[in-house]
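Data deposition worksheet. Section B asks for the primary sequence of the deposited chain exactly as it was used as input, without tags or linkers unless they were present during the calculation. Section C holds the resulting structure in token form. Section D is free text for depositor observations; keep each observation to a single sentence. Incomplete worksheets are returned to the depositor.
Section A, Depositor: J.P.
Section B:
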Amino acid sequence: MKEDLQRYYSFEIREQIPHSKLDLFQVDNGYIIVRSGRHITEKMLYEQYMMTSFMQRNGFSHVAVPVYSDIGSFLVTLERGKIAFVCFARKQAKGKIEDIGSFLASFHEAGSRYPYTPEMFNRYGLWKQNWERIIDEMEQVRDSLTESSDWLTSAKWKKLWIETSFYYIGLAENAIQFLTESERDQRFTRADQGGIALNRISPYPNEGFILPFRLVHDHPSRDLAEAIRELFIQNGTRALPNVRKALKDYENQRSLSAFGKRLIFARLLFPVHFIDFTKEVIEKKDFSDQKYEELKKWLRFQSVYEQCLKSVFYELFQDDRSIPNITWLQPNIGPEGKV
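Section C:
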């Protein structure tokens, strides 16, 4: 691969660095990372180039920027016909999860100055539309599994997923209702404008590299909500001190409006974690006993997650009398809970 890279790029490659997930090489002034170019277009890479280069110039040197090859394109053909692109980062980040709130505040402050709205990676104002589409897809999956001849006999995962899908679709519909009510809240501030955010929070963005296609244009509440969700997934209710710290650290650097807080909670209500798991299983058609056990873990976790939501609701809205209580949240569970 090194010879292919030197054919297309002018980097002086020192060595390949062993990495469990990345094709990573050290060059004179940083790192280059080789990524698959399957199902990716030059236009997509250009939009990512614009966003990633902006963030790298504004102090986030672990953001990896797509690199134009010496033949003038992002996409190149490597060994055995592999379509790929290369991105460049100046360093790896070594942040701590305890600092995620302050990191996101700095990241969003820089990202709010990005002067363009990307065409292909804009998510701002589109949550409701996207969530309604996801609910339709979930219902289609349920109908398809129900109509399959083996769902009662040969696939425990299918049967359990069908039985619980009504509950999760109901959660998603509740999230849309809360989002719709939140969009009527006119208590906006400058911090509510769209900017550069993350498609998914994991892996944590203050660790390692932020790779292309992790960046989107959205409301900053997206990342706070997903960081809180990830903390709860990892540690259940034991994560509450870190969640409080993340919110406090964020607000020490960047304000959260009443509208922004409502968006955080709306996104936490929407069961992204369950939907991501469902997509993974369906796409791979992996209805194994292992996935069945994972599904049972997610179901056990849900009561813990609802208790976490109840605590976050208090943290966000304890001083805001205009927000009605969400009565369906579980009133009491034990302190443990971890997926």
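Section D:
Residues 236 and 338 are 5 Å apart (CA to CA).
The mean pLDDT is 91.
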